[in-house]
TrEMBL record:
Annotated Pfam families: Amidohydro_3
GO cellular component assignments: cytosol
Taxonomic lineage: Bacteria, Bacillati, Actinomycetota, Actinomycetes, Kitasatosporales
The protein's Enzyme Commission number: 3.5.1.81
Alphabetized UniProt keyword annotations: Hydrolase
GO MF terms held by the record: hydrolase activity, acting on carbon-nitrogen (but not peptide) bonds, in cyclic amides; N-acyl-D-amino-acid deacylase activity
Top EC category: hydrolase
Hydrolase keyword on record: yes
Cited InterPro entries: Amidohydro_3, D-aminoacylase_insert_dom_sf, Metal-dep_hydrolase_composite, Metal_Hydrolase, Metallo-dep_Hydrolases_sf
Domain Amidohydrolase span(s) in chain numbering: 51-517
Protein name per the record: N-acyl-D-amino-acid deacylase
PANTHER family on file: COLLAPSIN RESPONSE MEDIATOR PROTEIN, HYDRANTOINASE/DIHYDROPYRIMIDINASE FAMILY MEMBER
Protein source organism: Streptomyces collinus
Amino acid sequence: MEELVIRDADVVDGSGSDSYRADVVVDGGRIVSIVKEAAAAGCQRPKARRELDAEGLVLSPGFVDMHAHSDLALLRDPDHSAKAAQGVTLEVVGQDGLSYAPVDDRTLGEVRRAIAGWNGPGDDIDFDWRTVGEYLDRLDRGIAVNAAYLIPQGTVRALAVGWEDRAATPQELDRMRQSVAEGLEQGAVGMSSGLTYTPGMYARDAELTELCRVVTSYGGYYCPHHRSYGAGALQAYEEMVALTREAGCSLHLAHATMNFGVNKGRAPELLALLDEALAAGSDISLDTYPYTPGCTTLAAVLPSWASEGGPEETLRRLADPGTAERVRHDLEVTGSDGCHGVPVEWDTIEISGVGDPALADFVGRTVQESADRRGETCWETARGLLLADRLAPTILQHVGHEENVREIMRHRVHTGGSDGILQGAKPHPRAYGTFPHYLGHYVRELGVLSLEECVAHLTSRPAARLRLPDRGLVREGYKADLVLFDPATVAAGSTFAQPRTLPTGIPHVLVDGRFVIEDGRRTDVLAGRAVRRTPPA
């Protein structure tokens, strides 16, 4: 007898088609049968060792977080309710060009310092891997939800070139090609970049194109955080479209939005650019989170020249008064490349986390507010915090536009991604709320998307981008990564004031046919594994 039958569910199957009522039978980690309108038809109902009454609940495929920063959280936090409770059954990590494989001992230490604001310093992690394959094997020991991995181009560059702002030599480019090829062979699904983060931002287009050619040959995709989301945003999108067209590479635009005052109301221009490229044959998708503020590290807004050479060199420059004044001028007058070419507005930058608990008084306040309290200029406050916390502070950046968010999420190639940073005392609520916020706020309350459309955005579309032949749909033979939610009550619990509050209206989540959330509570099941690249047919 099969393991589980889910009775009388309203199935929203991920295809975008209308929902239907059915009994769904799960066994051996897969959906083995779907009996539509079973009760109404009066037919013999399927039986199983366990029955779950889903009356009033929607059954859908598990949600795919196309942009996650859980690279270490998956290892340190077996509970991982931040994502499991949202109905997320698969996360894509290795984002924004910086993560922890492939590395050597030197590069690992540098990367750990550079992205401590994203993932913590990692002092509680046994870094017993160096290659992509070894990291994926580590995930296979058991994690809360599944995870796929993008090869981080910035880490690859740090490994081959270092943190200098210069073109790679032919030998260094060969080494980077080899690192990307090896990572794809070992199971990575593509390559990411962080082109406003060092050292990835130092790569010229020709270098990126060559690496994308390698990605193309393995059937992967390129996921850039491109060079600007502010001044020059459209040109930055055009650059990525042209680059991947030349390389013949599939393109997935990370947290695709139009931010800062210069881009208010300009989402239609971005979508027209993408529609033109799609009509010309480009393979493009994108992800967004359903909020207006962004989230990154405070150090990320610095000009790239100030970060050349790695974190220790950055701290040295900040400590030198003359060099620090040059940094201030670039930030406040010129508009640094780290701040997307826009002069920094300190009243939009809210400190969301610090590494040193002694600095907790900064958290929850903008740099402007803290400076006013301290009787300092904003730059004095920001510089002092960066030095005292050794570049660890994370920030919320309140620079987005609601009309842009809504326009982009309607697009036919849109998918969902939280960009969720789980570190800090006051993280962005998207880390705990992205997927229920789509379903509760943008579907039920605002009607921006229909329920069927939204579920397709969060399930089958990302599964197609990841080339996963047996995920993303409620279909017989597919993996039983499933979520049951109440469409009348599903909502994000997280807010900017209480960002770690779990969602409501999602009582059950299954990974590999096993309950990771049951009756609204996290179980002790660790059914997640690494999801490796599917070779092209």
